[in-house]
Design goal:
The chain is built from 14 helices and 23 strands. The protein starts with a strand and ends in a 15-residue tail after the last helix.
């Protein structure tokens, strides 16, 4: 494996691919030798030219911040001597490369692929045939879990599992905060990965079953596959709930997988526990998968808006038209205003784990993060909880928090989430969550968490080979092959809390 990588010819830094001790030297392609003046941890940045105080540090071909002191070639560049360039709300101009956008749009849907999935009545396709218990309020979480545990004794046929998705909300909320909870719950009830759903209410909560039924939240749900139970109205909620779940199991048990075009797939794009390799290996690899999805006429969704800050203009200039550009600007600036209204700094990022892995500023993180979006046009911008009906690359308004963002991806229609990570995490979204390691060390250390190793790129394997391998694994997963978190029995969901609690 090489000792360093210069990501873009314009960069005035390289990334150490293995730890460099002070006194170690690297040789650049032009013959220059750079001697490390400091110990450089793996994944961190080494200056390859002198940078004056206040000068831009350039990585990925773009500034990721400025130096706070004069830095000579060979020095370690990180949080001790680099600060962000970002500040406040910005005005943006739409300057697309129209020729590139046209060429990419012409390539949309030009390839074919298929998987074996469950066709649902609304035209969508599930990649799992699970029975879900969805509480309307946190007060019945324990009952939901007990029902799921008992009902799993009765599964048969093609039913994969009975899963309870617990959460803390559904009551003591106001305004948009409450509406978002209702929308998310409705999205889950109608998700195609669920062959049947028991909606479990308490009875006195704000977001009770009658409210959900009366609003748009459950519009178009399949009454054959959804049951409702209000615990306060039942003499024995456990017995009644189990009977309803057995009914749903009988309905779903006869479902069979059929051959489906990959255009029916919706892939969620997410990263977490990022490190200095994320923007070099796993994220650009997933970007190629996003492009492959466009080529087969499918859909990908990118979220974590705060981790677009600093790289947002790249996405904006890839918008298909000015209306999509305007929607992206509104999403970005709206999220910045969300921060400022809470009295929080807009650029309080990266996390401690990100910094330990070599990410210095939010620009550094964002330029790596947004590579998951590939190179095809941005076709649509989604509000939180809104299900997509537009093929191609979508942007989704949701926070960077792993559980919140992954849940939001599922609720916008993703049947699977691709999750790149340099430090590892065991969590799972409501849908299968494929962990893609950025480096060999974490893939080996946490083999029980990691599904695919993108770090092989550091060892000389090509993006083309790994793109084919990963896309094939996605199709196998969509056809029923279980991921590590599924085998471990992990299922998580989280709702984005945005308002006061009564």
């Amino acid at each position: 494996m090489n000792t360093y990588i210069r990501i873009n010819p314009e960069d005035n830094v390289v990334v150490a691919l293995q730890e460099l001790a002070a006194g170690d030297s690297i040789t650049l392609p032009d013959g220059r030798q750079i001697t490390a003046a400091d110990n450089i941890p793996a994944g961190h940045k080494l200056a390859i030219q002198d940078i004056p105080a206040g000068g831009n540090v350039v990585k990925y071909g773009s500034p990721i911040g400025h130096t706070t002191e004069a830095v000579t070639a060979g020095r370690w560049l990180h949080t001790h001597n680099v600060k962000t360039n970002l500040e406040g709300l910005l005005e943006y101009q739409y300057t697309p490369d129209t020729a590139d956008l046209s060429a990419k749009e012409a390539a949309f849907g030009t390839k074919e692929a298929s998987f074996m999935g469950y066709a649902r009545r609304d035209g969508r396709v599930g990649i799992r045939n699970e029975i879900w218990v969805i509480p309307t309020v946190g007060c019945v979480n324990n009952i939901a879990q007990a029902l799921a545990a008992e009902a799993n004794r009765h599964i048969h046929g093609s039913v994969d599992e009975v899963v309870a998705f617990t959460h803390n909300y559904g009551c003591s909320q106001t305004g948009d905060d409450q509406e978002h909870t209702r929308t998310i719950l409705g999205d889950l009830v109608r998700h195609p990965n669920a062959g049947g759903v028991l909606v479990l209410g308490l009875g006195c909560e704000n977001s009770n079953i009658d409210v959900l039924k009366a609003g748009p939240y459950l519009e178009g749900y399949d009454p054959e596959r959804v049951r409702f139970l209000v615990c306060q109205e039942s003499d024995d909620e456990m017995a009644e709930g189990l009977a309803l779940l057995q009914e749903l199991i009988e309905v779903a048990a006869g479902d069979v997988r059929t051959n489906q075009p990959a255009s029916k797939l919706i892939i969620g794009l997410k990263c977490g526990g990022s490190d200095g390799y994320s923007g070099i290996t796993a994220n650009p690899l997933v970007g190629r998968i996003s492009d492959r999805m466009a080529e087969v006429g499918g859909t990908s969704i990118l979220t974590e808006v705060p981790e677009m800050f600093g790289a947002e203009t790249i996405l904006m200039n890839r918008c298909r038209d000015e209306a999509t550009f305007d929607a992206t600007v509104s999403m970005i600036n709206g999220f910045k205003e969300y921060f400022t209204k809470q009295g929080e700094p807009i650029y309080e990022n990266p996390s401690p784990g990100n910094k330990a892995g070599g990410i210095t500023t939010l620009e550094d993180k964002s330029l790596g993060c947004t590579q998951k979006a590939g190179s095809f046009p941005v076709m649509h911008v989604l509000g939180y909880g809104v299900r997509t009906d537009v093929k191609g690359l979508n942007l989704l308004c949701a926070p960077g928090n792993d559980l919140c963002a992954a849940t939001a991806l599922a609720c916008s229609g993703a049947q699977i989430v691709l999750f790149t990570t340099g430090r590892g995490t065991p969590f799972a979204a409501p849908v299968p969550t494929m962990k893609i390691a950025t480096n060999p060390r974490i893939a080996q250390k946490k083999n029980n968490w990691i599904d695919f190793e993108a770090g092989r790129i550091l060892e000389g394997e090509s993006f083309e080979t790994l793109t084919d391998e990963l896309f094939d694994k996605i199709l196998r997963t969509a056809s029923g092959e279980k991921l590590k978190s599924e085998l471990a029995g992990f299922h998580d969901m989280a709702i984005w809390k945005r308002g006061v609690t009564l």
